[in-house]
Amino acid sequence: MGDTPAFLLLTLLATSLVSSLLLWNQSVRTSQSLARAFYLFCLVSSCTALFLISIRALGMLSGVSWYAPVLRIFIYRGWIVVGTAISAAIFLALNASTSRNSRARSTAIRAFLSSPHLLKGLCLSVAVSFICTEIGKLTHDADMRQFFLQSGYPVWFLYFVIVCETLGSIALLIPRTLLPAASGLIILMIGAIRTHAHNGDPFSDSLEALHLLILLACIIAIRMSSVRSAGAPAGLGAPS
């Protein structure tokens, strides 16, 4: 199976599993525990991905056969993060509070969606993903300069993108700047996908950008929903 079908299949599978778990659960306490567990998973998997990227940048473990597949799993966080993000966005779109499910189930779903740990975990995972990307770009500086030149961009634009993505990743962790940061990063990811398409690159080259694009869109949806529910910028679900 190719990279793109595998990515889509694993994303669909993760989304289905998370959605089924949320529908099955009818306990608010369990929902809160699931949200905390999700944040912990994001923290551990993100730190592991950063560690793996860092040791590769230092030239360690080069040529080790298991490194590439293991790194790929952690880059995509085992598809659990994107599956959770999409599931949350779907439930928000369907307005779980007014669904025909049992009252206990609807309350449990709302408890998960409104937990600050959900948005914290998503923002942390995306922020670290961008930091890993910047490390990779700087490690392969010559290759990236050549890629930007072949794509029709000046070399300075490479470093402009690195700075913007770094600042945007940091801003994702600050409640007041979360929405503009996510919006700006979405524009950059759309630009990355468009560049690969313009160059005639295989779509698999755009999978990491697509992955981040999906997560950023879900973050915006969850954040805006929490703001509307709370009636204030620092409402439920905001990182703090």
Write the layout of secondary structure elements.
Layout: H1 3-24, H2 28-57, H3 67-75, H4 80-94, H5 103-113, H6 116-139, H7 141-150, H8 155-171, H9 178-199, H10 207-230
Helix pairs in contact: 1-4, 2-3, 2-5, 2-6, 4-10, 6-8, 6-10, 8-9, 9-10
Describe this entry's structure for a reader:
This protein is an all-alpha fold and 240 residues long. It has one domain. The chain contains ten helices and no strands. Helix 1 crosses helix 4, helix 4 crosses helix 10 and helix 6 packs antiparallel against helix 10.
Observed structural traits:
10 helices, 240 residues, mainly alpha, 77% helix
Number of domains: 1
The total count of helices amounts to 10
Number of strands: 0
User: Percent helix among the residues?
Assistant: over 70%
Could you state the order of secondary-structure elements as H and E?
HHHHHHHHHH
Radius of gyration from the alpha-carbon trace, in angstroms: 19 Å
Mean pLDDT across the residues is: 90
The quaternary structure here is single chain
Q: Major sheet: size, sense and barrel closure?
A: none
Shape assignment = globular
Which consecutive residue ranges, at least 5 long each, have pLDDT under 50?
A: 96-101, 232-240
Terminus-to-terminus distance: 41 Å
Q: Which band does the percent of strand residues land in? A: under 5%
Brief account:
The chain has 240 residues and is mainly alpha-helical.
